Here is the input.
Amino acid sequence: MDFILAHIVVAETLLVVLALYLHLRRRANASRSEALTFSISLSLLVFSLLVQVFFLLGIPSHTYLLEIPLAICCLRQIKRGRDTLMTDTASVWEERPLKRTLLLVFIPLCYLYLQTVVLLPNNQDSLVYNLARNLLYEDAGTLFPATITDYTQVCYPIGNDLLYHFFLRFGIENGTAYFSFLTYLACISATYALVRSAHTGKTAGCAALLFACLPEMVFHATTPKNDLAVVLFALASFLALVRFAKARDFINLCLLALFTAGGLSAKTTFLAIAAPLAGAFLLWLWKQGHVGSTLLLLKTRPTRSFLLLFSCFLLSQAWLFAYNVWAWGTWSGPPFFVNGNVNEDGLFGAAANLCRYFAESLHLTQPV
Here is the structure.
């Protein structure tokens, strides 16, 4: 029964992914790899935004009120875009290198997928943090529980961790790593799309396979954690930035803003990517003289712009940081807790940490 319940959520997410894929292919002129990357990334944000809204309203058990209409809308979108879907499917099988690659990775990917929906999570960090905080929220019926076991459970971004609620609400742990597997697939697609924007298909395919075979990425693909989501939203943000540089339209601007906010909803450390990315983007707009035309994109679409800003506000966890200031005095949590995790050695400490992280990232084992 747990296996069946897990696949209900899987089917629901795949409907959203497929509908978004077809929409991006038809309306945003996205390539197949771009559309796949963006559709998976956006689906994660849609479900995260959905559960955040219902938790903030104090009715987390009523998410089905939007899930059912969402599924119906997705089915209609898939029906309208079935010709595009059939064309894309046929074109994949006509490209022999791509066809052979997909056949090569099909069995390993199926194995990883079965791990996410059959095996129970056994990662200590997932059990005591990522999943445990969800249970606290569900028990309290709010994102601001009165009783906690660790400050990290209420002070850190929760956008990605709340996705596990869709499985945990049924009282099952099967499938909680599914969103990590979906994120893993999107990372592979994003790697291909980014490299393909500047190089040949063979080079892009090689880069995607190299990423797919990294042992650390494979591990995270079967673990309910938020680290891989940071990687995805970083790649998706860069891809959206590349597209916006080529075509300055409202869709690409929305994608860039949403993915940057989505990264912040996964982990605070995404600020290390979001801050320089936003700075570089604004500097590029100013140097190219595109500031006025970019603002005009927002001004001429007031309703859509408001929805975009509202979504970014929720996804970026600005409301959580404001709550932290009110409850603890600082945006990231209680001072005595935060000070224990701060680099006190300046640039020398930062360089030492960088060297340590680089050494830890080396894998002397064979690729998976």
